Amino acid sequence: MKKIASAIIASLLVISALAACDKDESAADKKTLVMATSADYPPFEYVDTANSDEIVGFDVDLAKALGKKLGYKIKVEDKDFSGLITALKTKQADLVLAGMTPTPKRKKNVDFSDVYYKANDMIVTKKDSNIKSVEDLKGGKIGVQLGSIQEDAAKELQKNTAFDIETRNRIPELVQDVQNGRFQAAIIEDTVAQGFLKKHQELQGFNIKTSDDEAGSAIAFPKNSDLTPKFNKALNEMKDSGELDKLIIKWFGADSK
Ligand code: ARG
């Protein structure tokens, strides 16, 4: 009897020692989280090439603020937008902040936080293009970012207006192809489009209503990640305290609220 008891105690000790070891290791792992993004999206995420090669922007500040509250460091990695969901699924990234909209299609593959910022779509054209409405896109070639909800929006518009759709990996490529006339227009989120319009005087834009009524941004996580509820709680704290509004004003300007 004694022998059995001490054998049980011994094995319990071994098991708890192993468990402790395990815990320590994962705690160390979790101190730095990899945030994947597509750094082609000012003011959400971009490289301010004049100043450094670091990725900066609203999403980066938000992730770091949330990480700070929860005890995580955030390491930012740049990828094409269309590869971000895969990065989460293959555990190359712990979270994605990329102005990403929580669509039903994406929700099949990843989990999302609540929405932290809302936006609308804009048609960007050249000022001398005579394109003033969606109908004017007829017969033209329209550019959208690969894998974005703007690609879906373009397909939706195509049902009523005949035009061609072409995709690009990066937003500046879309803008460039509007400038050089390869595209008659591009569909880009308004907050991002505004920045490009300011920079390129020959371009103009107008907002469109898309069928997608929740064109907002949310944080994406691998399915069933224990980070999702933690980050969501911290996000809602930032909403309540006004910290989120401060970041919005910092990156989108005082009238963006
Ligand atoms: N909100 C849009 C979407 O979810 C576009 C986001 C593009 N983001 C970027 N970093 N390029 O599809």
From TrEMBL:
GO terms for cellular component: cell envelope; membrane. It comes from the Bacteria. GO terms for molecular function: ligand-gated monoatomic ion channel activity. The keyword Membrane does not apply. Coiled coil: none annotated. It is found in: Cell envelope. Transmembrane segments: none annotated. Residues 1-19 form the signal peptide. The keyword Signal applies. Keywords: Lipoprotein, Palmitate, Signal. InterPro entries: Iontro_rcpt_C, SBP_3_CS, Solute-binding_3/MltF_N. Residues 32-255 form the Solute-binding protein family 3/N-terminal domain. Residues 32-254 form the Ionotropic glutamate receptor C-terminal domain. It holds the Pfam family SBP_bac_3. Belongs to the bacterial solute-binding protein 3 family. This is L-arginine-binding protein. It comes from Falsibacillus pallidus.
